[in-house]
Amino acid sequence: MFNETFLSPIPLDAIESEDGCLRIRDCAHYTKILLRKRIGAEDTPETEVLYGKSKLRTDGTLITGSRPDEWTLYNPTSDATDLIQEYAAIKDQVILVDITHGRSLLSLEGENAGKVLEKICNIDFSDEMVPDGACLSASIGNVSCDLVRTGTNKEISFLIACERSFGNYLFRVLVDAGREFEMTPPIGLELH
Questions:
Q1: Model confidence over 136-159: pLDDT tens digits?
Q2: What are the extents of the domains in the chain?
Q3: CB 18 within 8 Å of CB 182
Q4: Which neighbouring-strand residues pair with 94?
Q5: From CA 192, how far away is CA 190, in angstroms rounded?
Q6: 5 alpha-carbon distance from chain centroid
Q7: Average pLDDT over residues 112-125
Q8: Which of 78, 80, 88, 172 is 20 to 30 Å from 27 by CA-CA measure?
Q9: Please, what's the largest Cα pairwise distance for the chain?
Q10: pTM, whole model, 2 decimals?
């Protein structure tokens, strides 16, 4: 287990459009755990979450069916100790990898969130195609990302994870795509 303080590659905690209809928050401090089911193992509550779906646990941990027989867990705390101990107890059923320090995580929020993503990604982010709880992988601004729609039809939000080394660039791409929706990049963080 890695016990170093997490230093985010994202330069701001949050940025919001002038009209308040679009926000980008840095969530890189979240605990991120990758689970893989062992061959022949029994199902656990996590492994019952289907590929492409997500489920929120009562402790705030979001379980996503990120790939076949692979799940990514996101918890808003920065201390993975409790989650790691919980899954270490069932290590005969799952393989656990703490990816907290290796991944950036952004939250794109507001009524224009889907429209921003559609500018830089070839996915239709309408409510019908990507409903609340859906998770998928896609290229956003040429960065391979995992996305989870965590909001409702009234409060749209997406968690977007990518490799840590692309975090700053992805943040700048999202801010640049938000220019049409009254988001102004801070001086020095412009994409172009």
A1: 999 999 999 999 999 766 789 999
A2: 14-179
A3: yes
A4: 37
A5: 6
A6: 20
A7: 96
A8: 88
A9: 54
A10: 0.91
